[in-house]
Amino acid sequence: MAIRPVRTPHHSTSSAALVGGGIIPQPGEISLAHHGVLFLDELPEFTRATLEMIRQPLEDRWVTIPRVHSTLKFPAAIMLVAAMNPCPCGYFTDPKRQCKCSPVVIERYLSRISGPLIDRIDIHIEVPPVPWRQLRGDTDGLSSADMREQVLAARQVQRNRFSVSSSQVPSPTRQGGACRSPESLVPSSTTTNATMSSKQVRQFCKLDSAGETLLKQAMTELGLSARAHDKVLRIARTIADIEGEENIQSHHLAEAIQYRKLDRRL
């Protein structure tokens, strides 16, 4: 494949169509988006059971479908992008329109998405309405081409980082009478910060004293889980890579923490 797939299933999609399965097991949308983007618009409109089924594939990057005589595994290394309204009427955070939803209705609407699922999503941001002047006029900022260049440069930094770390393996050893080279002992295929293991997070996401204090305060006040703790560090490491910084600074960590908006609600 020369082009990364982008899948956009409707919110009425069944669990089997999204995750995979059926009498004759077939891959679902999450596997058809392998190494691409799965975009779920109107996220709370999906059934709760369907959304809960994508929790494990998001973490394991595989879909496992058990059957009586066999178990099938479909790949699901995806970038999940989801969109939702802040409330059923859509005006809860709008500064110019009044929301007609009661707090109970808003809470019920947001509760359609479970905390464990939100916990597995790296970045939560609010997108405010775009002013008319910015919508119609020329605005300062990065173009898509400039952003692409920054992303490619940051990814190259990450490839170099993990290729060097994975090559640091013991000298050739003999097992079963055969000499194994260092290249054959390399266990991982990590190429980006998003796929770092917990051990790699501790190795490459070291903080200074100010960063440790900031992260401790965020963990305490926001009640972040251990999974969210690692995700914040991965995001901070990526922000530092984009800015060309070798070490994670306090402002990188602060920005990463600000990308956990829904942790303040759920």
Structural write-up:
This protein has 266 residues and is an alpha/beta fold. It has two domains: 6-121, 3-Layer(aba) Sandwich (Rossmann fold); 122-129 and 147-155 and 191-266, Helicase, Ruva Protein, domain 3. It is 41% helix and 11% strand. The protein has twelve helices and nine strands. It has helices at 15-19, 29-32, 48-52, 55-60, 103-110, 115-119, 132-136, 144-166, 198-204, 209-222, 226-242, 250-258; strands at residues 6-7, 20-21, 26-27, 37-40, 62-66, 71-75, 79-82, 173-175, 178-180. It has a three-stranded parallel β-sheet. Helix 10 (209-222) packs parallel to helix 12 and helix 11 (226-242) crosses helix 12. The two termini are 39 Å apart. The model is unreliable at 169-187 (pLDDT under 50).
Short summary:
With 266 residues, the protein is an alpha/beta fold. It has helices at residues 15-19, 29-32, 48-52, 55-60, 103-110, 115-119, 132-136, 144-166, 198-204, 209-222, 226-242, 250-258, and strands at 6-7, 20-21, 26-27, 37-40, 62-66, 71-75, 79-82, 173-175, 178-180.
SSE order and pairing:
Elements lengths: L5 E2 L7 H5 E2 L4 E2 L1 H4 L4 E4 L7 H5 L2 H6 L1 E5 L4 E5 L3 E4 L20 H8 L4 H5 L12 H5 L7 H23 L6 E3 L2 E3 L17 H7 L4 H14 L3 H17 L7 H9 L8
Parallel strand pairs: 1-4, 4-7
Antiparallel strand pairs: 2-3, 5-6, 8-9
Helix pairs in contact: 10-12, 11-12
Strand fraction: 5-15%
Number of strands: 9
Give the oligomeric state: single chain
How many H/I helices? Answer: 12
CATH-level-4 superfamily name of the largest domain: P-loop containing nucleotide triphosphate hydrolases
Please identify, by name, the CATH architecture of the largest domain: 3-Layer(aba) Sandwich
Domain module count: 2
Strand order of the largest sheet: 1-4-7
CATH class category name of the largest domain:
Alpha Beta
Helical residues, percent: 40-55%
CATH topology call of the largest domain: Rossmann fold
**Mass-distribution shape:** globular
In round numbers, the mean pLDDT is 85
In the predicted model, the low-confidence regions spanning at least 5 consecutive residues are: 169-187
Structural class of the secondary elements?
Answer: alpha/beta
Secondary-structure element series: EHEEHEHHEEEHHHHEEHHHH
Largest beta-sheet details: 3 strands, parallel
Gyration radius, rounded: 21 Å
CA-to-CA gap between the ends?
A: 39 Å
